[in-house]
Amino acid sequence: MFNLFMRSVIVLALLFGLLFAVGMVVMVYFDLPTIFAVFFAIGIVLLQYLLGPWILELIYKIQWRELPAVDASLASFVKNICAAKGIPHPRFGVIEDGNPNAFTFGHYPGDARLVVTTGLLNKLNQEELQAVVAHELGHIAHWDFVVMTVAAIVPLLLYILYMTARIGRGSRRRGKSGGFIVLIAIASYVAYIVSHYIVLLLSRVREYYADEFAGEVTGNPEALSTALVKVAYGLATTVEGEKRNDTRMVAARTMGIFDPKAAQTLALAGAAVGTITPQTMAGAMKWDLWNPWAMFYELSSSHPLPAKRIRALERQTEKMGKATRFTFRQEKTESYWDEFLVDLFINYLPLIGFLVGVILAGVLVWQMGTITIAVGIFFLMYSGAWLLKRWFAYRYDFQNTRTVKSLVDEIKVSKVRSIPCTLEGEIIGRGVPGLFYSEDLVLRDNTGFIIVDYRQPIRLFEFLFGWLKAEELIGRRGKVMGWYRRAPRPYLEMRKLELDNGKTVTSYLYPVQQFFVYCGLTLGIILIPISFIVGF
What we know:
The chain is an alpha+beta fold. It has two domains: 4-319, no CATH class; 339-410 and 412-536, CATH 2.40.50.200. 59% of the residues lie in helices and 11% in strands. It contains 20 helices and ten strands. It has helices spanning 4-29, 34-59, 67-70, 72-85, 118-123, 126-141, 144-167, 171-218, 221-232, 246-252, 278-290, 292-299, 306-319, 337-347, 349-368, 371-393, 404-408, 459-468, 470-473, 509-534, and strands at 63-65, 91-95, 102-105, 113-117, 419-430, 441-444, 449-453, 477-486, 490-499, 504-506. Strands 5-6-7-9-8 form a five-stranded mixed beta barrel. Strand 3 (102-105) and strand 4 form a beta hairpin. Helix 2 (34-59) packs across helix 7. The longest helix is centred in the middle third of the chain and has 48 residues, at 171-218. The radius of gyration is 26 Å and the shape is globular. The chain starts with a helix and ends with a helix. The model is unreliable at 1-8, 169-174 and 237-275 (pLDDT under 50).
């Protein structure tokens, strides 16, 4: 359930990561010098850099348009900014999808592509739209395509050092200095992990940099703030009272504006008329700023949390000598660390159950030599831990009908701690606009919109649903039952979707997982008495 940029990164990473893995196996098998592996890794990154834009154009339904034909005012704005900053005019594309988003990709500023969805064109006012486009132009002006490509080389090289030290250059070297090589391997692996998070940190810094660029060229940082609230938190429906010109109505027929891991959908009061109030913004920012889960999720995110970006834009507004309309000054009335620690324990409960089960089983085999009872104890501990986690994470009560607005203010919610509820509204698009196999949906009610996470026990079924069925649902109204979560993006994990035409879409992940958990418990309960009967 990712936005355009992150799904693009994942697709490319899987493709070229597979090539890198196969190449490393060949290098090790033929005992080739380390320098070969280094050049191979750099070659993989360069190949991804060269072919990436072509692959993205291939997998997304991008309609390339002349910008004046889409929005004359926006075209004039882009032309002026490009001229003032010496930026080559990017190629402009539109994806017909109600999920608002924007992203850029390319090799260098001279061949950059800037893509927006019709949802973005329809949900933001002119100032907000210009601010979002200016943010994307900031990525182009700062050569972020090249910067992040170069940064991506470092983790690969550290991984090669780790593999070289781990495998060695044959038993000859291991025999002479095995302990030293082990230390090098450990240090290289730690450095590899750290470098991965440093690259993500660099990406977050580039996002702040692009935000600052947008605030500077528009002279109105708060326009990007309100755009972030509408898009990143989903606090917007189509702007009413603002007559669209004909060109925009025609349009309506590697750097996203936000990261879904940093917050993606939801809505608040006032959004339906295209306005954002200080109360609306404060309610949207609370989870990012107060829930301990937020800072942990941000560590593995390519984008800063929207609330932190809004605060940075607020400081930029103050530096310009302007009064800020949206200032978050609320104080926490309680600590949320107790809920966080409970969530953390529940999240890792299956791992704890697995380890305890392995230890107990090992002790029983060693002390008593009874394999059957050991296996039974293991299944009992592991399945029991899973059952406890699922009791906590999947409360099965969908009688509570909510709005997207009412969910966004919820602070005591996480990937583990959910809110079972029912939402009613219209399906307006896919979770990943333009991606032909995107299985997730976007549901909008009269307060905003939210990603609906469609899941099945077998991923192939998700792919087939996205490819063959999802498009048919767009434009239909209905109600969806599921579990509202944040991780850190807000989303609704679907259990069932009932449409106005009588059709039903059901996720079978929950009952199938429950079935296997109960099977594990049953197996454990059966094996324990059997062990006393057979004595083995």
